[in-house]
Amino acid sequence: MNDMRLFERAATVDEVKIRAKDVNVHYGIAHALKDVSVDIGDRLVTAFIGPSGCGKSTFLRCLNRMNDTIAAARVTGAIELDGQDIYDRRVDPVQLRAKVGMVFQKPNPFPKSIYENVAYGPRIHGLARTRAELDEIVEKALRRAALWNEAKDRLQSPGTGLSGGQQQRLCIARAIATEPEVLLMDEPASALDPIATAQIEELIDELRQTYSVVIVTHSMQQAARVSQRTAFFHLGHLVEYGETGDIFTNPRDPRTESYISGRIG
Amino acid sequence: MSPGWLFLLVLLIAAAGYVLGRSRALSATGGSLRTMHSLPGAYGWNVAMAVLIPSLLILAVWTLVAPAVLGRLVTPMMAGQEGNLSLLMSDVRRVADGLLLLGEDPASITTEGLRDRLAEAGVALGQDVSNATLAAAARYDVLGAWSHWLLTILVLSVALGAAALAVRRTTPTLRARNEVERGIRGLLIAAALVAIATTVGIVLALIFNTIKFFQIYPASEFFFGTTWTPSFGGGSELGILPLVWGTLYISTIALFVAVPLGLLSAVYLSEYASSRVRAWAKPMLEVLAGIPSIVYGLFALLTVGPALMLVFGDGGLGWMQGGTAVITAGLVMGIMLIPFVSSLSDDIINAVPQAMRDGSLGLGATRSETIRQVVLPAALPGIMGAVLLAASRAIGETMIVVLGAGAAARLSLNPFEAMTTITAKIVSQLTGDQDFSSPEALVAFALAMSLFVVTLCLNIVALWIVRRYREQYE
């Protein structure tokens, strides 16, 4: 862990992008998330950490209503994106997911060409009117995902033929091609080797220029390296939330301290 | 001793061998399992296997070969008689069986009234028993008794000898477990061989009879003839083309019904239906697959045909002359194939990883966009395979065609006319008493062979597609 970097990167911009209040999630009779309230800043990387089953992925999936696809899941409480309640009946979850993109734990490129993978979102949302515009969007997304140099000569070959790290960057390119405002990442580097992980982390830091990024991670080093804010979840509760530097150097809650020093988890 | 009892006796010896082998292994080590190579049961099985394999093999081979050998030995006695030798020999066999049933001494029996007495015992004969037949039958029985005794002695001595040898070989260091493992492998191979041998046998029978057919009927007329007018009096025209056309036409209509309906219901079941709906809808759909095709045939004949007549018949549009038509059979066959397509496609769609759907939904795609653009393309090879398998079933379907499509072999584009298929004609060529040396009967084998080749090709292509594209999303 590079402690020096923690203090340099205190948050400078402080607009709230997502505000969650008293969010509870039940899966059938299991109470997965209990009274979670959190403000997620714009143009910041917010990390959710905590032991397995603590509810951090569940909470992440609430932010773009992916839990709607699970029949047994029930969400209560309020989550606002730019002041608009996303669980309001007037909000179309499909529209919401175009604004709040998501990258999953395991790279999941579609069984299509690299180009088609990236063009998928822009196509369904009608973001490009001509082929040239679409080409431009695809190139821009691939460049931002640091995949352009590797992929530009093989745009028509299948996305599944890339290496694991490249596939995950392809998924990130696919997510940013729809120009979301928030990017949710569910353990994006857990299936990757250290070099690919480093590339993804570098990429996340870049994306912070334009997006609000929320990342769930098992690796505390990763949270410390890439995030400005950190939330620690434990047994469905949000235990502590604050500046990443504070959480790692000066945790207020004894549970947080035990977790980051490796005693629980 | 009859083979059945002999078989039981061999089993008994094997069981005794098991007990002996097991206890010998145990007593040699004083009951300590640690100093034995294998568990006690393995030593027992080793002995049992040593008994079973050779004696059952002898039993099986002898039972299969003995009748042929006996027949050969008796045949010279009938050589001077009038009539077809193979028919005479089958009479001899029946009389021989009958004599055993009557239980009389063959030496003292006479031909007088023998036919009636045999008939009372349940052996019906086509003509009176001649002296030569009776003599041959008596000889057959004597030889048969000899053969039984020889078999009994041989099998029992082999079984007992093998048991003794195997028990003597049983020492604690014997690798009985490995022997048993080999035995199990042999058993599995034998089971597989039976299945393969049967298939090969069927194919060979088809090939030889087809060759026989082409020796008496020109192949070019069979494959390129456009008329199908078999007549057992001679002068038939046996062109396969009208039948091929009927088969393809009906199958195509069936697929046009089954593929869209089956696929859409599969998509509904796997992607939209709640688990409660799915829990009863899927079994309901699969019940359709369990209905025997003759029931569908009845349905075609009694319900669908008349219903179509109401609309397209003389009372309605006037396009249809009778209830049995290509369209009737095609529709009903399509209904029969729906569960076949839907249940296979459902499995294939379910095999598309959830991560694919999440990825698409997470980008803001709707459910139907996800299905059309991600799930179905990923599942397409499997679905193609399912469709081809359904096609090969449609081509091989018989009862629906017999009852629903009529019997006229015809080359026509009108779906409201009666036509027929290869399978239906195989049935009609072989129904009733046939002379199996006439081209009219033998053509059934050529038809069956053509059908077999077509469905085989379809299945191979289907499996190839499924396999070729399977790993795409793994």
TrEMBL record, chain A:
One of its GO terms (cellular component) is membrane. It comes from the Bacteria. Keywords: ATP-binding, Nucleotide-binding, Phosphate transport, Transport. SUPFAM superfamilies: P-loop containing nucleoside triphosphate hydrolases. GO terms for molecular function: ATP binding; ATP hydrolysis activity; phosphate transmembrane transporter activity. Residues 18-260 form the ABC transporter domain. One of its GO terms (biological process) is phosphate ion transmembrane transport. InterPro entries: AAA+_ATPase, ABC_transporter-like_ATP-bd, ABC_transporter-like_CS, P-loop_NTPase, PstB-like. This is Phosphate ABC transporter ATP-binding protein. It comes from Rubellimicrobium rubrum.
From TrEMBL, chain B:
InterPro entries: MetI-like (IPR000515), MetI-like_sf (IPR035906), Phosphate_PstC (IPR011864), PstC_N (IPR022182). Residues 244-462 form the ABC transmembrane type-1 domain. PROSITE patterns: ABC_TM1 (PS50928). One of its GO terms (biological process) is phosphate ion transport. Keywords: Cell inner membrane, Cell membrane, Membrane, Phosphate transport, Transmembrane, Transmembrane helix, Transport. One of its GO terms (cellular component) is plasma membrane. CDD domains: TM_PBP2. GO terms for molecular function: phosphate transmembrane transporter activity. It is found in: Cell inner membrane; Cell membrane. The chain crosses the membrane at residues 45-70, 146-167, 187-208, 248-269, 290-312, 318-341, 374-395, 441-466. Belongs to the binding-protein-dependent transport system permease family. CysTW subfamily. This is Phosphate transport system permease protein. It comes from Rubellimicrobium rubrum.
